[in-house]
Amino acid sequence: MLLAGTVVADPETVIEDGAVVVDGDTIAAVGDADNLADRYPDHERREFGIVAPGAVGAHVHSVQSLGRGIADDAALLDWLNDHVLPMEAGLGAEGMRLAAELGYLECIESGVTTVIDHLSVHHAEEALEAAVASGIRARGGKVLMDTNAPDGLRQDTERALAESEGLIWNYHGADGGRIRYAVTPRFAVTCTDECLRGCRELADAYDGVRIHTHASENTDEIAVVEDRTGKRNVEYLHEVGLTGEDVILAHCVHTDEREREIIAETGTHVTHCPSSNMKLASGIAPVEDYLARGVTVALGSDGPPCNNTLDPFTELKQASLLAKVDGRDPTAVDAPTALRMATLNGARAAGFERVGALREGWRADVLGVDTDLTRATPLHDPIGHLVFAAHGDDVAFTMVDGAVLYDEAEGGHRTLDAERIRREANAFDVPGVDA
Question: I need a labelling partner for 201 at 20 to 30 A (CA). Which of 160, 167, 260, 313 fits?
């Protein structure tokens, strides 16, 4: 297939009248559209306003999708304890599968081709099966909670680690490596030392397994951890082994100088979730400081109950604007930087190689974006348009590993039954939500 249009190959490279040639699961060539059409005359040609790399949702909760809108205007710990955790505890296997399908449905049609997915304590295999079936590129894992957790979610430490290991055996490397595993303790508030150290040992035992958790999102959370451990959140996580190149820390809004040094020195990845942080009044993450220290900062949407969308273009715009809101530097997190966070940085955090840009020999994770729109007229800067004006609804075509997952012009979703999923989600009796 030859995908033609204005090609945004990476945050520094725009090819007017360009094209991306896909052979199998790989990008065979990127360059001038007419030249490539001559070189590949047998390839089906498709035309789009912009051809771009797929976005990486570097911190999402697909299984919270059935809870969209159930906990608006609440602080983090109230939001979690009064609404989201009871919902997760009440979801059976059927509900967890449907929630994940709904999350991936939104991701795919909005331009997310890779996710780092924070699942739940029970029925994580249902979400992982949904990821396999959907065609999305995913790193996900079951949640571990062995203290300070509600009934239905708190697990014995050994059992939680054993179940995690079983999921590694069954899903890590599935479908040619498109599905990979992350050991996923929820956060330090709900995990004992034994659990967190066990997570490190488990990740170390399997090549390519990562660790994904929340950290320093909210001042109340930090106070709870400090009261229990005598250390600030990131310092404590570092002590129990949850820092390093194989660790993704979501949020990191409230960190002090020593914690930022730890993150940078250990090569720990940070996922910035600007919409969630604003909605929950968690604060503004020091993204510019992290980037200046060489920290890989990716972008995530978090979960539908605190966003309320998995649209990556929302996060692109919010990440750039939020960095400028203090009035000091209008160049902070400029458009190319935001795009890098949503693509190459996200792929690096997720541990997927040759993902996040449109380059010869890289994985064919490609978007076709519609620009036949009033808010895309005139289109002077394609990168600026993607960051500041585009919406997930503008995505007309989504491809992962050379497989078309969504094609608006030819019926929409290819791998998921969108009509069934939406119908069942609307009818589903969500635990903890009044009818």
Answer: 260
Cα first-last separation, the chain: 47
Contact 169, 125 (CB under 8 A): no
d(CA 369, CA 6): 10
- The whole-angstrom separation of Cα 330 and Cα 209 is 38
Q: Which is nearest to 428 in space by CA: 73, 90, 74?
A: 90
- Segment 406-423, tens digit of pLDDT: 999 999 999 999 999 999
State pTM to two decimals.
0.97
Which residues make beta-bridge pairs with 298? 271
DSSP 255-272: --HHHHHHHHHHT-EEEE
Q: Determine how many CB atoms are found less than 10 A away from the CB of residue 150.
A: 14
Spatial contact of 106 and 393, defined as CB atoms under 8 Å apart: no
Residue from 114, 100, 32, 109 nearest 67 by CA: 100
HSE-CB at 144 with a 13 A cutoff on CA atoms is 31
The tokens for 295 are 């920290």
Q: Give 15-57 as a 3 state SS string.
A: EEEEEEEEECCEEEEEEEHHHHHHHCCCCCEEEEEEEEECEEE
Two tokens, residue 409: 């012009």
